[in-house]
Design a protein that fits this description.
Blueprint: E1 2-6, H1 24-36, E2 44-48, H2 57-67, E3 74-77, H3 84-90, E4 104-108, E5 111-116, E6 126-127, H4 130-142, E7 148-152, H5 162-165, E8 169-170, H6 172-180, E9 185-190, E10 197-201, E11 204-208, E12 215-216, E13 228-229, E14 234-241, E15 244-251
Helix pairs in contact: 1-2
The structure holds fe (ii) ion (2 copies).
């Protein structure tokens, strides 16, 4: 079982004056090209939010155009930079509700995948409220003990980067309690932080995928200013092999092809 994860692509309308620190659209095009060239293709690609910068219909059209060449099916979730109405129009997903949250649950092979929409309109922070708690508990019950992965935009933990944590998930403790009450959640995968990191929530390994655009500067000083950095664009490959789930990061803008060293393992 192989799944890819793309996040925080922030596709932008070139006609607007949005301040871009890298070429967001070109970076997604490069990521799609690299992903399509993976020798083993993923069975699905998780897109964990902030797929556009402002959620406009123009940006959603540009996003659709850039994602169109992907060889594997896309499972998409909105982030705080997206807009539910345009997002719903752009992706054909079994959305959980008519309007309050675009969560979904699908099966990929023997894996149950729950996409939890944490968007809170008008805020950069996310929300796990009573309605979503009830929905998640039901979705987990419907998994009937099968291995289940949860994808979400806002990470349910503090990163230690204070200005990013001001946009945290409200209700994260309740989310952790729901997960801790289960035994079949195998991984939780998130976006939003524009920086790869890993922790444990409710006993489950929880990771954040690198963004395809700029990254957040790693500065754990509580007084750190808002700073970003042009780290390489990346995506993740979550691979279930003989020993469990292993998450790889593919950096895609180094421009360097792989080389075959003359070393031998014998
Ligand atoms: Fe983002
Ligand atoms: Fe975000």
């Amino acid at each position: 079982m192989l799944l890819a994860q793309l996040t925080d692509t922030h596709i932008a309308d070139p006609e607007t004056d949005t301040e871009l620190l890298v070429d967001n659209n070109a970076r997604l095009a490069a990521a799609v090209e690299r992903l399509n060239a993976e020798s083993v293709q993923p069975e699905a690609i998780l897109a964990t939010g902030d797929m556009t910068d402002n959620g406009t219909a123009v940006e959603m059209d540009l996003l659709a155009e850039l994602l169109e060449p992907l060889r594997a099916p896309l499972l998409a979730l909105p982030g705080n930079h997206d807009v539910r109405e345009t997002f719903r129009d752009a992706f054909d997903m079994p959305w959980a509700t008519e309007d309050s949250h675009l969560s979904w649950a699908v099966d990929v092979g023997d894996l149950h995948i729950i996409g939890l929409d944490t968007l809170r309109p008008g805020s950069h922070g996310g929300l796990f409220d009573e309605e979503r708690r009830r929905w998640l508990v039901e979705a987990l019950a419907a998994s009937e003990g099968r291995p289940t992965m949860i994808a979400m935009h806002h990470p349910p933990f503090l990163s230690g980067i204070h200005w990013m944590d001001s946009m945290r998930l409200e209700g994260a403790e309740d989310f952790a309690d729901v997960v801790a009450a289960t035994s079949n959640v195998v991984r939780i995968v998130c976006g939003h932080l524009h920086r790869p990191l890993t922790t444990t929530i409710g006993g489950v390994t929880t990771s954040v995928c690198p963004s395809t655009i700029h990254h957040v500067e790693l500065n754990l000083d509580p007084a750190a200013p808002i700073e970003v950095i042009r780290d390489p664009a990346g995506y993740q490959l979550h691979h279930r092999n003989g020993s469990g789930w292993v998450s790889h990061i593919r950096y895609i803008d180094t421009g360097e092809p792989p080389v075959k060293p003359r070393w031998s393992l014998s």
